[in-house]
């Protein structure tokens, strides 16, 4: 008998907090749970880690299964291990958060899970400890958004400054001073203004911008980005 045989086996799971931006609001992707316990209630997308895969591989597989996405921003967040978090089996969950542009993947969201986007400031109560997972993911996103340009992962290739400000306001659940926000953002050198405007919001319109990919890579890798939002 080896030393492992006397140990009780645990289940290992991953849960994905998927954030998306539709050009107006920051949102979170939820599914309706298809089995007991808590069948029919809203949940994060998750699943069990299989014997032949790592937690990172399991999270990537789950994200692809739900959205068809590969190679998106996906980062490990925290381990949730309360002994009573799952009423049926002792289950440890490793959480991840992902950032996607909603409009790029609207048609890829699987109907099998009854998935739906909800505003991050107004979504239904979730099963188990999933609300805690979302709250921690939002705090981590706020932290990273202040020092790294990760929020650009949520944007389309061309976007306006009002759209970007709306995204930051959704992240921090606050209103930002337009002039101060614009000044700080343009000072990073990460944006290149385009010659045309988006006139859907007003007659005057707002210039489109693109990410300066060279500056983005340099600033991201060197961690030289600070927007100073709290």
**Sequence stretches where pLDDT stays below 50 over 5 or more residues:** none
Most strands sheet = 7 strands, mixed
Radius of gyration: 20 Å
3D shape: elongated
CATH level 3 topology of the largest domain: Nucleoside Triphosphate Pyrophosphohydrolase
**Number of DSSP-assigned strands:** 10
Q: State the fourth-level CATH superfamily of the largest domain.
A: Nucleoside Triphosphate Pyrophosphohydrolase
What tags apply to this protein structure?
single chain, 230 residues, alpha+beta, Nucleoside Triphosphate Pyrophosphohydrolase, 3-stranded antiparallel sheet
Task: Characterise the protein shown here.
The protein has 230 residues and is an alpha+beta fold. The chain folds into 2 domains: 10-147, Alpha-Beta Complex (Nucleoside Triphosphate Pyrophosphohydrolase), CATH 3.90.79; 150-222, Arc Repressor Mutant, subunit A. It is 27% helix and 27% strand. It is built from 5 helices and 10 strands; from the N terminus they run E-E-E-E-H-E-E-E-H-E-H-H-E-E-H. It has helices at 55-67, 130-147, 161-172, 178-187, 213-222; strands at residues 11-21, 26-32, 42-43, 45-48, 73-80, 91-101, 116-119, 159-160, 191-198, 206-211. Strand 1 (11-21) and strand 2 form a beta hairpin. The chain starts with 10 loop residues before the first strand and ends in an 8-residue tail after the last helix. The mean pLDDT is 87.
């Amino acid at each position: 008998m080896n030393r492992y045989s006397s140990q009780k086996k645990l289940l290992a799971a991953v849960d994905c907090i998927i954030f998306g931006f539709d050009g107006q609001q920051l949102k979170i992707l939820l599914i309706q749970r298809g089995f007991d316990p808590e069948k029919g209630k809203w949940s994060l997308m998750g699943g069990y880690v299989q014997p032949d895969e790592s937690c990172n591989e399991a999270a990537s597989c789950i994200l692809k299964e739900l959205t068809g996405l590969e190679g998106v921003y996906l980062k490990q967040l925290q381990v949730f291990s309360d002994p009573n978090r799952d009423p049926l089996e002792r289950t440890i969950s490793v959480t991840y958060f992902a950032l996607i542009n909603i409009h790029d993947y609207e048609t890829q969201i699987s109907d099998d899970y009854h998935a739906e986007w909800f505003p991050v400031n107004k979504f239904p109560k979730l099963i188990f400890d999933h609300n805690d997972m979302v709250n921690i993911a939002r705090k981590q996103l706020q932290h990273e958004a202040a020092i790294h340009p990760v929020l650009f992962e949520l944007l389309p290739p061309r976007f306006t400054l009002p759209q970007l400000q709306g995204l930051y306001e959704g992240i921090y659940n606050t209103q930002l001073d337009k002039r101060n926000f614009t000044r700080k953002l343009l000072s990073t050198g990460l944006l290149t203004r385009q010659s045309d405007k988006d006139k859907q919001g007003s007659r005057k319109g707002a210039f489109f911008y693109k990410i300066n990919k060279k500056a983005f890579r340099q600033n991201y890798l060197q961690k030289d980005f600070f927007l100073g939002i709290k």
